[in-house]
Amino acid sequence: MIRSFYLTTLFALVSSFATGASAQGTFKLKFPDGRKSTTVTQVKSEQTLTLVGMELISGSEQTITVTSTNGQRADDGKLVVKSTIDALEASVTLPGGTELQFDSADPDADPPGTQFDFVLDIFKATAKSTWATTMSQDNRVVAVEGRDNAFGDLPQNLQDAMKSQLDPEYLKTAANDELDKLPSKPVSPGDSWERTALMRLDSGQKLTFTTKYTYEGRIEQNGKTLEKIVSQTTKVDYSADADAPLKVVESDLKVAASEGQILFDAAYGQTVLQQSKVQVTGSLKLEINGMELPGELDLTIGNKTTIKL
């Protein structure tokens, strides 16, 4: 079963690195020394997975607040950005109607006593997360360190399930994929470009999205001139790692609906808004413990990220 318990923290991590735009449609990354920013990310997922005629409905809504502070650029041009999770709220609905609530303001609240209470332990660990991201002289992410430290006290089976999502190389790639949403050369209204990015889920599952971005030009909003990019996801691929407990035998998933936008504040060279929504539907065949299970998937993931300086 595809889960999205960890999607919010991933979006919050990578979204804080999409920065920089000039009024001419030439996008330039800017990471000034000492800049402090607060990122608020909201992620909502709704999923219906039908396996051998059985309908499994799940979903989640999560809001996470992250504060990131730039250090001082070193002589070799590298810059370390330190990030801390300030708040995490989550609401999860699981197959069978089980509902879970988490609020980092009261992380030790009594669990409801379900077989899925371990999800609350994951949220509790996530809420304690701090990490450091190292940028190169040309503002590429070269390392993401410490992201897994907060999860060391979880049972080994939970650590194993989340291992691929917390892998430093994957987090580095995901952050650079976020940067690469921006065009690599000056653009005019109507110009488009395409990017492919990997999203890891738990237990070795992964979704690969292909998205088309189009520069629409400048807009005025709340007294500011912003650069606007719209996006449309055009392709999705669902797969799993070779050693994953759940095998993907066949997958024929399509993007049923998609929309998104990115807004940049040209004066600060900083993203002020990113939001997207994509619905994925289609057939698949999974293998669990040697048993093949044909099914249908209807998955919608939406996210909205705002960044404040």
- Give the number of domains: 1
Query: Using only CA atoms, what is the Rg?
Result: 20 Å
Outline:
globular
As a percent range, the share of strand residues is over 45%
Give a description of the structure:
- The protein is mainly beta and 309 residues long.
- The chain has a single domain (7-308), classed as Lipovitellin-phosvitin complex, beta-sheet shell regions, CATH 2.30.230.
- The protein has helices at residues 7-15, 118-127, 156-166, 168-179; strands spanning 36-51, 54-70, 79-94, 98-103, 130-135, 141-145, 192-200, 205-221, 224-240, 246-265, 270-288, 291-308.
- Strands 1, 2, 3, 4, 5, 6, 7, 8, 9, 10, 11 and 12 form a 12-stranded antiparallel sheet that branches.
- It is globular, with a radius of gyration of 20 Å.
- Residues 1-10 and 18-23 have low confidence and may be disordered.
Detail the topology: elements first, then pairings.
Blueprint: H1 7-15, E1 36-51, E2 54-70, E3 79-94, E4 98-103, H2 118-127, E5 130-135, E6 141-145, H3 156-166, H4 168-179, E7 192-200, E8 205-221, E9 224-240, E10 246-265, E11 270-288, E12 291-308
